[in-house]
C-alpha cells in the first residue's frame, strides 16, 4: 500500500510538472516591464515570451504579436525555445512511461523487476526534464538581473522576472521530486532471496 501511494504521489508531481512545462513554454510572461524611476506610473505593460510579445496599455485591449522572423532572435531565445520544446516532449514520454510501469497497469504483467526498470526510466526522464527546464529559465533570469543592475541599460529597456520563470522553477522541482520517487523503486525492487544455509545446517550434531 505504501509503494502504491508513493507511485501515485510521484505520478501526480510529474503530471503537475508536465502541465507546468506546457504552460511556461506557451506563456509570454518570461520578461515583464520593470517599473522603476520614471516608469512607476503604469501606462504600458510589456510581456516578452518565447514566441510572442504582448503590450497592454491603459484603456486599450492587450495586443500580442508573434516574432516576425527566427533569424533575428537573440541566441538565448533560440536556445530556450529548443530546450523547452524538448522538455515538453520528454515530460510526456516520462508521464506515459510512469503510467506503464505502475501497479495499476497490466501491460507488463506481474514482473516486479520489469516494473522497477520502467519506473527507473520514467524517473530519470522526469529528472532530465527538470534539468532542461532549469537551463533556459535560470539563464533568462540571470540576463534579466544583469541588465536590471547595469547602469548602461536605459530604464525603459530594463525588465523584471515574469511569472513564467517562477512557474518554471516550481515545475522543475515537481518533476525532479517525482522523478526521484520513481527512481527509488528500482533500489527497493523485490528480489528473490537466497539462503546459503538452511535452518538445519546451523545446528551441527555433537
Automatic annotation (TrEMBL):
It holds the Pfam family PMP22_Claudin. Its main location: other. The chain crosses the membrane at residues 81-106, 118-141, 161-186. It is found in: Cell junction, Tight junction; Cell membrane. It comes from the Eukaryota. One of its GO terms (molecular function) is structural molecule activity. It is a multi-pass membrane protein. InterPro entries: Claudin (IPR006187), Claudin_CS (IPR017974), PMP22/EMP/MP20/Claudin (IPR004031). GO terms for cellular component: bicellular tight junction; plasma membrane. GO terms for biological process: paracellular transport. Keywords: Cell junction, Cell membrane, Membrane, Tight junction, Transmembrane, Transmembrane helix. Claudins function as major constituents of the tight junction complexes that regulate the permeability of epithelia. Belongs to the claudin family. This is Claudin. It comes from Terrapene triunguis.
Amino acid at each position: 500500500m505504501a509503494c502504491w501511494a508513493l507511485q501515485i504521489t510521484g505520478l501526480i508531481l510529474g503530471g503537475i510538472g508536465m502541465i507546468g512545462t506546457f504552460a511556461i513554454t506557451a506563456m509570454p510572461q518570461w520578461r515583464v516591464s520593470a517599473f522603476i524611476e520614471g516608469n512607476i506610473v503604469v501606462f504600458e505593460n510589456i510581456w516578452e515570451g518565447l514566441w510572442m510579445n504582448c503590450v497592454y496599455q491603459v484603456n486599450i485591449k492587450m495586443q500580442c504579436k508573434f516574432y516576425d522572423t527566427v533569424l533575428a532572435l537573440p541566441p538565448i531565445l533560440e536556445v530556450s525555445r529548443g530546450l523547452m520544446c524538448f522538455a515538453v516532449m520528454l515530460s510526456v514520454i516520462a508521464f506515459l512511461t510512469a503510467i506503464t510501469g505502475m501497479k495499476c497497469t497490466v501491460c507488463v504483467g506481474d514482473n516486479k523487476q520489469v516494473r522497477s526498470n520502467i519506473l527507473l526510466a520514467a524517473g530519470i526522464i522526469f529528472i532530465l526534464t527538470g534539468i532542461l527546464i532549469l537551463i533556459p529559465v535560470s539563464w533568462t533570469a540571470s540576463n534579466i538581473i544583469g541588465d536590471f543592475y547595469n547602469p548602461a541599460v536605459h530604464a525603459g529597456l530594463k525588465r523584471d522576472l515574469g511569472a513564467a520563470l517562477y512557474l518554471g522553477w516550481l515545475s522543475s522541482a515537481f518533476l525532479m521530486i517525482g522523478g526521484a520517487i520513481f527512481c527509488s523503486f528500482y533500489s527497493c525492487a523485490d528480489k528473490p532471496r537466497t539462503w546459503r544455509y538452511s535452518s538445519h545446517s546451523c545446528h551441527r550434531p555433537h
